[in-house]
Amino acid sequence: MDKKQNTLYVGSLAKGLQILRTFDESATELSLGELVKRTGLEKSAVQRLANTLHIEGMLDKDPVTKRFRPSHAWLEMAYAYFWSNPLVRLAMPKLIELSHRLDATVNLAELSGDHVLYISRVPGRSSQFSSSIVGRRLPALSSAAGRAILSTFPKAERDVLINTWSVNALTPQTTLDKADITRSIEEAEHQGYALSQSQIILNQTGISAPIKGPDGRAFAAIQCSVSSQLWNSERIQTELLPYILETAHGIAPHVRAR
What we know:
Blueprint: H1 11-21, H2 32-39, H3 43-55, E1 59-61, E2 68-70, H4 73-84, H5 86-102, E3 106-112, E4 115-122, E5 137-139, H6 144-150, H7 155-164, H8 178-191, E6 194-197, E7 204-212, E8 218-227, H9 233-256
Antiparallel strand pairs: 1-2, 3-4, 3-8, 4-5, 6-7, 7-8
Helix pairs in contact: 1-3, 2-3, 5-9
């Protein structure tokens, strides 16, 4: 059923959420005109919705420039989410231990539509600010975490997802050929982990191990990224991979027990 044909669907609320989803790392402050352009909604509707969201505390509004930006309320919702997700609480001690051991940023990722979402991140000592912020979304077919999770799905389901999910060139070396992506995921299935090189960031290698449920299907993944110039395949295999696999395998039984 089309969501707009659902009798419980509230169109005005959906439009308000569309306003909120317009903000991201490339659009942290937006004017009314920019909100109109990015949402495609009528100016009068955007004006009412943005003003309501401001009054309700969901958007801050600069008194001089009149530009809108996310408010502290977003952090309060994120805080509630983290406490509601048992995986985050259970995994965090092991992520901290792994990050210290590898001296690298370690991510906990879940599928979110055709993307993976970093729901927890522990930065290494030399990590940049962007590597410490949760909520980053990456195309599942291009990321090591996405490929690791998909590698545990039944082949028929996996093939449908690979064929229907989109992939974009994030670097000059991003793999766009679905056959090549399929082979990479099949390789991850046989190996028990996924590797991706220069797919998201040029000269960066992603290493990811799936966190599997009792049925063998992954519901999350541990992911770590390193410089391809400093870490060759042999070094990754000996110095990183065993600990990443150990962490992923160590988290799964505790989540299953709940």
